[in-house]
Design brief:
The complex is a heterodimer of chains A (420) and B (70).
Chain A (H helix, E strand, L loop, with lengths): L3 E10 L4 H12 L3 E3 L9 H6 L3 E4 L4 E5 L3 H9 L4 E9 L5 H36 L2 E2 L1 H6 L12 E6 L14 E5 L13 H10 L8 E2 L7 E6 L6 E3 H13 L4 E4 L1 E2 L10 H12 L3 E5 L24 E6 L23 E4 L3 E4 L6 E4 L2 H18 L5 H10 L9 H4 L9
Helix pairs in contact in A: 6-9
Chain B lengths: L3 E7 L7 H9 L3 E6 L4 E6 L11 E6 L2 E4 L2
Antiparallel strand pairs in B: 1-3, 1-4, 2-3
């Protein structure tokens, strides 16, 4: 519809008798009115208005008048009269469908332009964030994290380890929840430092001083379970406590850079197999270190440690900068019983956050490879919210970078790859 | 004798109740912990346990020690 004003005014009156209203109009506005009850086929409203009189529609309590000074209406409204409201008459026209569609189209084009402008400003903001990063660890470089549009936003990652140094300068603006399962030892100090290092790789971002990127899922929600003591020792019960708690917190990823040595031919623990399956059913992927007991090439590698050797827990091997299996990284020797390597990731000379005076340290181990995979898993969960944890696992293995010339027992399906 | 710590997997559908806890106590086994999200219990005993002699349990293993991998 489109409106166009006329020179007529519509007056709304307080409830009163028709005669009293018309008397007031005559007195206050100097206009004689004719009641609508007198209208007929011969006595038309238009002719009454043209004659300078008003028409009082008694069933509506409304008067129509023409050519009146608005100051008189203002005065009448302000004084204690019968007038409640007045307005200029509008004209109405039939809706033109084509014109209506044209107006909608115009509005949509404007909306599209606004969305494009917003999108441009958001991308500019992301580029600005990436420009802050001045360098990356070799692990972040090889995984090409800067090409990923995912950040782990909205994903809960649990790192079950020695704790976390909560006052680390790189994490002051992060949401971090923690719990200690070690008697009389706090989770938020991390005297040992290992947990802080692993957390940094999985969920950190950049170093505060030289802006080096060392973490993957930098917008994930961090849950710290201290399941290893300040001297880096834990037990089945403390680890189960941590896993139980992480599931309670609805974590999608649990990273465990810990292990217990197993012998060749030793079957995986049915307890951890059960735990891994329970976690998957609850939408959670447990990632664990395959172990560092090997001394390649001098001796045969050692089998994947517990709990990584459970079929339902993702076992991670370590790679060096040449993407060769690290000499200490355990192998899937008990593969027929589930003790396989599933994926591999950077695990030699890995720079990350630490609970020392300098706030950073370079460490090597399948402990360091594991949070790389955990961080990438968080990106997958963010990218594919409709997939189950088991499906996420399959996707990660399917998308892994094949490392030709290396044995599957050493590197699994290959090096984990970040989602672009 | 030193106390032995076991982790036991409850049979499918079994949850820890007072009755089950009492059963273990009668076997001179203490339930230390119940991981409700995992269907597991932590047990303390003064003798080696044989799963064949225990009700409600699907799997049983001695607790082991873990450490960091670096």
């Amino acid at each position: 519809m489109k409106n166009k004003n006329s020179n007529r005014y519509i007056l709304l009156h307080k409830a009163d008798s028709a005669q009293r209203v018309m008397n007031r109009i005559e007195k206050e506005l100097n206009i004689q009115c004719v009641s609508s009850s007198e209208l007929s086929s011969t006595v038309r409203a238009k002719s009454i208005l043209n004659a300078g009189s008003g028409v009082f529609f008694k069933n509506l309590g409304i008067t129509v008048v023409e050519n009146i000074e608005e100051e008189k209406l203002v005065d009448s409204l302000n004084s204690s009269s019968s007038l409640l409201h007045w307005e200029l008459e509008r004209k109405f026209y039939p809706v033109s469908e084509l014109e209506y569609l044209a107006n909608i189209k115009k509005s949509l084009l404007l909306l599209e332009q606004q969305v494009l402008e917003l999108e441009t400003s958001l991308f500019a903001k992301e580029e600005t964030l990436e420009k802050i990063v001045e360098q990356r660890t070799w692990g972040m470089d090889i995984l090409e994290v800067q090409k990923s549009k995912y950040s782990g936003a909205g994903i809960n990652i649990a790192i079950l380890d020695t704790g976390f140094y909560k006052n680390h300068p790189d994490f002051v603006d992060r949401t971090i929840e923690g719990k200690s399962f070690i008697d009389n030892q706090a989770w938020d100090l991390d005297v040992y430092g290992h947990g802080t290092h692993c957390t940094g790789t999985a969920a950190g971002y950049i170093s505060h001083d030289d802006k080096k990127r060392y973490g993957i899922a930098y917008e994930s929600n961090i849950f710290i379970g201290k399941v290893l003591s300040d001297s880096a020792v834990g037990s089945t019960s403390t680890i189960l406590d941590g896993i139980d708690w992480a599931l309670e917190k609805e974590c999608q990823v649990i990273s465990m850079s810990l292990g217990s040595t197993v012998g060749i031919g030793e079957k995986p623990s049915p307890i951890f197999e059960h735990v891994g399956r329970k976690a998957l059913e609850r939408g959670c992927l447990i990632v664990a270190a395959s172990g560092n007991d090997s001394l390649r090439p001098a001796t045969l590698p050692k089998p994947v440690s517990s709990p990584a050797n459970a079929e339902s827990i993702m076992a991670v091997a370590a790679l060096d900068k040449y993407l060769k299996v690290a000499n200490f990284s355990n192998a899937g020797l008990n593969a027929s019983d589930g003790g396989r390597i599933d994926l591999s990731a950077p695990g030699v000379d890995v720079f990350s956050s630490y609970s020392n005076a300098s706030h950073y340290k370079i460490l090597s181990g399948t402990s360091m490879a594991t949070p790389h995979v955990a961080g990438v898993a968080a990106l997958y969960f963010e990218a594919f919210p409709g997939l189950t944890a088991a499906e996420i696992w399959l996707k990660m293995e399917k998308n892994a970078l094949e490392l030709t010339g290396q044995r599957r027992r050493d590197i699994g399906s290959g090096m984990v790859k970040v989602l672009k | 004798m030193k106390k032995l710590i076991y982790i036991a997997m409850l049979k499918d559908g079994v949850i820890l109740t007072d009755e089950i806890e009492l059963y273990f106590r009668e076997q001179e086994i203490t339930v230390l912990n119940y991981y409700s999200n995992l269907g597991l219990i932590e047990l303390e005993a003064s003798e080696f346990l044989n799963i064949n002699n225990l009700k409600y349990i699907e799997a049983l293993e001695l607790e082991r020690s873990f450490t960091t991998e670096n």
